[in-house]
Amino acid sequence: MYINKLSFQNLRGLELITLDPSKSLNFIVGPNNAGKTTILESIYLLSSSKTFRGTNLDKMIQNGKNFLKIVSKISENTSNSTICLEKSLKIPKISTIDDDKVSTKECLCKLPVISLCFGVENLFNTSADNRRSLIDSGLFHVKHEYLSRLQDYNKILNARNKSLKNNRDSNLSFLTDKLIDNGMLINEYRTRYMDELSIHLRETLAELSNNSTLYSDISNASFCYKSGYSNEPLKSQYDECLHKDLALGYTSIGPHRADIDFKISEDAVKDIASMSTQIILSLCFVIAQTRAFHVKHGHYPVLLIDDIFFGIDDKNLAVMIKLLSNSGAQCFLSAPDLYNEKVKEIIGSSHNKLFTLVDMK
């Protein structure tokens, strides 16, 4: 599955943009605040109806305009589809596939996307919320029914938090029991998915260390899924935390507090690894997710990598590009214009493409 045409109108600072991307690597290069991230975000919006940072969609409409529109033509095997998102000021967004109105879930299934926004963050120094979001997004694309299960859990969690905040003891027992049942189901889904990811990550790291002596040390990298609660019966844990939760006004344990613990041998990655190594490992984790997706569906999701040159030297950059080129996924990568010549060297005479924002405007 890949995007063979992308166009959008009145999105943030960009009035009208059209791209005919490569099936492999697509570099979006331009000055700071020129709209590089906006192009990647247009794909994310089309898929999930969300922005990278949860911005209200009305605020994504270009100043002075009253609507935005994003259209993409998608090829999958021998079939082609057109997916579209339209949003007018103060009017709910409309998503369509081949002119038929569809739900966000249908868009997510039609245009599966995995994104990494480097900038000042990576998988290891970002928040646990962002790591959970990456897990849940990848898991949904492997098990579509997971989304409704997660939504059910979050509804019950919100209701329990409201009861805790208002000190309504009469509802707590019922809501706690439902939260436990749904939470154990969420944990079961995540545990199975993370076990599968662990296999794909080991494969990716083995390929990396076999091809470069630079990475022999990180062949021992691994992760452990932390469920957000201990191995003790969950009911007794909620009972023990009740007074604390009432004081806090929210539920302090459960799958909504889950995280991933990354290590190299016995040491935490964030404590011992350089920025370049952290970025490489972040990318390896995402490639493991694309492989899990491929096993399930027979094709790959689209990868969005924002600010790919951040915190990485030339040797590590070459390794990253090779990993992405060999991933099988269509990739969209943003970079500042000072790396324009470097990107041209990377692309060479290959089938990858460079899009310069100055030329597109």
Note the main attributes of this structure:
361 residues; alpha/beta; Rossmann fold; Glutathione S-transferase Yfyf (Class Pi), Chain A, domain 2; 2 domains; 6-stranded antiparallel beta sheet; 5-stranded parallel beta sheet; 11 helices; 46% helix; 23% strand
Structure description:
Helix 3 (128-142) packs across helix 5, helix 5 (169-211) packs across helix 8 (275-297) and helix 8 runs parallel beside helix 9. The protein has a 6-stranded antiparallel sheet, with helices on one face. The longest helix is centred in the middle third of the chain and has 43 residues, at 169-211. The protein is of the alpha/beta class and 361 residues long. The chain is built from 11 helices and 14 strands. The protein has helices spanning 36-48, 104-110, 128-142, 146-166, 169-211, 234-248, 269-272, 275-297, 314-325, 340-347, 357-360, and strands at 2-11, 14-19, 25-30, 67-76, 79-88, 94-97, 100-101, 113-117, 221-226, 259-264, 267-268, 302-306, 331-336, 353-356. Strand 5 (79-88) and strand 6 form a beta hairpin. Helices cover 46% and strands 23% of the residues. It has 2 domains: 1-124 and 300-360, P-loop containing nucleotide triphosphate hydrolases (Rossmann fold, 3-Layer(aba) Sandwich), CATH 3.40.50; 128-272, Glutathione S-transferase Yfyf (Class Pi), Chain A, domain 2 (Up-down Bundle), CATH 1.20.1050.90.
